[in-house]
Recover the amino acids of this structure.
């Protein structure tokens, strides 16, 4: 793995400060070193149904962490064990459409990395762009399209002081993705690989925009993930993206529907992770 000294970064100590505060508040000190970090999307706190929590900490108690303003994003950190694997879970995320700069959502993978995690599981509620994806189905991310209007690594520097030129050909770990797809299929879950289109939001896409995204190669669309997955990849973390489809392509949607479908599908994603995580090894 890339050494910490050779990693790019934004040049602040917020992640290290938040990690130290988190260790202090969970009462586990330096002994708390999770292997896996999980981020839950809108209504997807149910992904953590299988976690045996050791402690919880509110985002408001951590340096640099604002409180989420989006329904379905609780704003707390859960430290515990998931299928025998030590994890830290961020229940709720931050979005650019809330008025945050990219540095804020990037805090989640940065803190996870500072705690020692080398795997990041990103869950998200998404709308279908490809025909045939039904609400409640799961999409394993294999790539993304960044239509946010900003690169998550803008302002980051390499150890030599230059811009953080990071190769993005393998942001989403193929082995983790294949394992998730295999176990989801064995559980008879409606699952497929897909490409995630990240848009700024908070408005949903127009019909013409949906057609454009489909033509560009997207399968699903959302307003998050990329501000977390790219920094995680830059830090040498393996990323697994699991998206819950909340509405079929071309159908009307509101946030209440998103949360409702996500809450039901989160339990399915939990079962998939219960199969995948114990196989990480090492």
């Amino acid at each position: 793995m890339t050494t910490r000294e050779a990693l790019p970064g934004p040049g602040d100590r917020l992640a290290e400060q938040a990690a130290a505060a988190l260790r202090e508040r969970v009462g586990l000190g330096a002994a708390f070193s999770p292997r896996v970090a999980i981020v839950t999307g809108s209504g997807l706190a149910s992904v953590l149904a299988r976690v045996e929590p050791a402690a919880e900490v509110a985002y408001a108690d951590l340096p640099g962490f604002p409180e989420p303003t989006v329904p379905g994003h609780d704003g707390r950190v859960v430290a515990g064990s998931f299928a025998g694997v030590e994890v830290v879970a961020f229940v709720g995320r931050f979005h650019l459409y809330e008025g945050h700069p990219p540095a804020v959502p990037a805090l989640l993978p940065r803190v996870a990395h500072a705690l020692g995690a080398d795997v990041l599981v990103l869950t998200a509620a998404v709308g279908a762009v490809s025909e045939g994806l039904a609400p409640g189905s799961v999409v394993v991310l294999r790539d993304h399209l960044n239509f946010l209007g900003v690169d998550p690594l803008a302002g980051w520097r390499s150890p030599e002081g230059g811009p953080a030129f990071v190769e993005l050909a393998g942001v989403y770990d193929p082995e983790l993705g294949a394992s998730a797809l295999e176990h989801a299929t064995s559980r008879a879950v409606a699952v497929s690989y897909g490409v995630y289109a990240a848009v700024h939001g908070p408005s949903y896409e127009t019909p013409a925009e949906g057609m454009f995204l489909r033509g560009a190669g997207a399968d699903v669309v959302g307003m998050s993930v990329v501000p977390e997955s790219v920094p995680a990849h830059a830090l040498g973390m393996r990323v697994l993206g699991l998206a819950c489809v909340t509405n079929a392509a071309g159908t009307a949607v509101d946030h209440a529907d998103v949360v409702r479908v996500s809450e039901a599908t989160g339990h399915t994603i939990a079962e998939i992770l219960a199969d995948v995580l114990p196989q990480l090894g090492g």
Observations:
- The mean pLDDT is 91.
- DSSP finds six helices and nine strands in the chain.
